[in-house]
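Hey, quick one: can you model this chain's 3D structure?
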Amino acid sequence: MPTALPDKPDLSEADVLLLQQLACGALHGAISRASGIEQVRVGAAILTLLTKINARSRFHATALGAGWGLVQDAHVMNPTGNPLSAQHVAVLAGLVGGEDAAVTAERLDLTVNTVKTYTQTVLRTLGVRSREQATAAAVLGDLVPLRALGVGWPAVKLSRLRQQAKAV
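Sure thing. Here's the predicted structure for all 168 residues.
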């Protein structure tokens, strides 16, 4: 029996494009050029998108987009190929879930500075420039189970979900 995902929100093509631009690590100027949104209005458009998809942060939004299949690529630049430690994956799972450093630190019994250091190590290891890229890459690359996205998400990795969908 296939695993069900939380309902995908009804997003416009412009919303999906904005989400994809965030997952690529695009800055406001690049988002403006790609989407046609005035650069001074990009921040407001992002906040509106976060509300529409009930995301806690920009990086949570890109992870959700990857989980729903709206984001297909995180544009990983130059991954090191080094494996992430269990603690690094736990910090990455916190990012996927939209946690800030203080919440992740408390959950893992670490200091906030340690979480920030681990986050930078994760970004370097994955070969990404931003937390948005890292969270999309984490979901797309099966580094964390989908349940890291929040309540209602299954405890399987994305590839497993895709395999189940093909088997139906």
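One thing worth noting: The radius of gyration is 16 Å.
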